[in-house]
Amino acid sequence: MVAAAIEARGLVKYFGEGEARTMAVKDVSFDARFGEMLYVVGPSGSGKTTMLSLVSGILRPNQGGVRIHGTDIWSLSADALAEFRLAHIGFAFQDYHLFPRLTTAENVAVPLVLQKRGWDEALAEAERYLDIVGLKHRAQLPPVKLSGGEQQRVAIARAIVSQPDILIMDEPTASLDGDTGRNILAFVRGEILNDKRCIVIVTHDARISEFADRTLMMEDGALKEIRNGGHRQD
Amino acid sequence: MSRLGYVALTNDEFVAQISAFYKFQTGLGVNLFLMTVMSFVVGLSISGQTFYSFVLENLEKFGALKAIGAKGAVLVRMILFQAGFTALTGYGLGVGICTLMIAAARLRLPDYAATITWGNLLLAFCMVLVIAGISSYIAVRKVLRIEPFDIFRG
After folding, report:
1. With CB atoms 3.0 to 4.6 Å apart as the test, which of A47, A142, A173, B2 could cross-link to A221 if both were Cys?
2. Best to test chain B binding among A14, A25, A53, A99 (most B CBs inside 10 Å)
3. What are the pLDDT digits (tens) for A86-143?
4. How many Å lie between the alpha carbon of B67 and the closest alpha carbon of chain A?
5. Range of the domain at A166
6. Has residue A92 been placed in a domain?
7. Minimum-distance CB partner of A99 among B61, B152, B153
8. What is the total count of domains within chain A?
């Protein structure tokens, strides 16, 4: 049997202690499958970003566990977990977090350089992925010369250049206009998603709901509902 | 000669005696020492402040690198490289400027008494290394404490 892409079990996360304790995530369990585009939606403060951080190995839960491709990620040491993230998880951040002093190609090459790949090889691979996202002609420009949609594509290229199993996208359309946001998600759905990859997207943008296979609805830190398909605002 | 109240000295002994006189029997030695200490403190403050500002400005970038999978050791090496590069560049420029100033002074005053000894160079180099070390220690502490979660939280 093929392991689920992500198995999250009984995740609990709180911040602070005593009377100042705030529950951010309350007993959340779910599976994410390969070949699936999974949305996490909910109002601001519902715990979706915290939950995303727990399952992607950048914030340790107070209780519960996460298995990615069968590996219990929170049993790994800090260095082993960093290596695991580098090999298996790609991140596309809301504000892109591209490095302004590097060219677009160098930005995309960063994960490969961290994997100790040779500089020339990493740059060649980065240009191949820029070609996939349709930005090879922008390879030598700094990110500030690109539009918001182009920067998002560069962030996606950087997230997938190391061929991760899991792609985590945090509010990928938050800084984009409606058409650009839809184009980006259509592109991710059509070109980046495949049967060996799972894409988890945190969003509150109902305009892109049609691209989801399933949607986790969060409220007050708890998983309220899992729906098949997107989340249309009625 | 000593009966007549004179002392016979070699050239080196004479220079050492004159040097000791100015260093220890006038205010010059204390002034030079204070100037050196002040230069060290000012250098450390500027260097530490600059490095700390650099880290603060790039906190999100370091967080992004950590989230992507950069280990702490990689980030520490990055900071040490930058600190080392900056320190050596500053040291080279400093020694170069001092040498040029002495050369320029000797154009007007051919007997101008100033020399940069190997000992001076070594002492300055050690001080620069200490400044770079302390500055990068502060930056490293900050970077290692960054939570990648913070960049998700915005």
Report:
1. A47
2. A53
3. 999 999 988 889 999 999 999 999 999 999 999 999 999 999 999 988 899 999 999 9
4. 6
5. 6-228
6. yes
7. B61
8. 1
